[in-house]
Specification:
Largest sheet: 6 strands, parallel
Distance between the termini: 6 Å
CATH architecture of the largest domain: 3-Layer(aba) Sandwich
CATH topology of the largest domain: Rossmann fold
Radius of gyration: 20 Å
Shape: elongated
Mean pLDDT: 94
Number of helices: 7
Strand content: 15-25%
Helix content: 25-40%
Structural class: alpha/beta
CATH superfamily of the largest domain: NAD(P)-binding Rossmann-like Domain
Number of domains: 2
Length: 241
């Protein structure tokens, strides 16, 4: 039986691990964070020490398959993981959910980076940032903006003491999002096009309120996506189980 290494951190990774374990597969899920929650099967936490370290781990663990189910914006790990799998003689698969698509009534402004979004926001706007704790930095120099940021971990805000932090973790339902948007009366929102259902309600509410959304496109130069859903990936792996 093949030994499977899942590079996790997404809901798809969790579901894939559950389904593979149910099939009796030999599965290890790896997380970059030491604080990652429990998953079915074996779990590994922490970094590998770069591409060479990952290749050594794959080879040393006799993994024959690497399933990259990391976040769509984890732009460095995926190309490195593909090269590491090749070095170690393992097969590489990429599982990445589909991006959100613009719907009738959306007022999206597509941008290539958070820096571009920070430059384009209208002066004096009250902006809702849903870009993660590490994504706030490009907006800090814009002292004319009234910023509300939803985060899981407390970010480094430098000398800014006027930023409102909403500490919460998805999934978020539409009624809670409506209440949040009504409370703060946002002019605009910045988000990454990560796709999925867990945080999609904010897009519905932004559409209802005819609000500007600065949508950061997914990074370029990523490996070919073999599957957009867990069902598709399970079909890819069927012959290896």
């Amino acid at each position: 039986m093949s030994r499977i290494l899942i590079l996790g951190g997404t809901e798809e990774a969790r579901e894939l691990a559950e389904r593979l374990v149910d099939k009796g597969a030999d599965v290890t899920t790896s997380f970059a964070s030491d604080l990652a929650e429990e998953y079915p099967g074996a779990v590994r936490r922490g970094g590998f020490g770069g591409e060479e370290g990952l290749a050594s781990f794959i080879e040393g663990g006799a993994f024959t398959i690497v399933v990259d189910a990391t976040h769509p914006f984890a732009s460095e790990i995926s190309p490195a993981a593909k090269r590491a799998a090749k070095t170690a003689g393992a097969r590489y698969y990429r599982l990445e959910r589909r991006p959100w698509r613009r719907a009738t009534g959306d007022r999206w402004i597509d941008v290539r980076s958070l820096e571009e979004a920070a430059e384009k926001i209208d002066k004096g706007a009250r902006v809702f940032l849903t870009v993660g704790s590490r994504g706030i930095a490009p907006f800090l120099p814009r002292r004319d903006l009234e910023i509300v940021a939803r985060v899981i971990d407390t970010p480094d805000l430098g000398t800014r003491h006027d930023i409102t932090l909403v500490k919460d973790r998805g999934p978020f339902d539409i009624e809670d999002e409506r209440e949040l948007f009504a409370r703060y009366q946002f002019d605009a929102m910045v988000t990454k096009n990560s796709g999925g259902e867990a945080t999609a309600a904010k897009l519905v509410v932004a559409r209802e309120r005819k609000m500007l959304v600065y949508m950061v496109k997914r990074p370029r130069g990523q490996p070919w996506v073999n599957a957009a859903t867990v069902d598709q990936m399970m079909r890819k792996l069927r012959r290896h189980l």
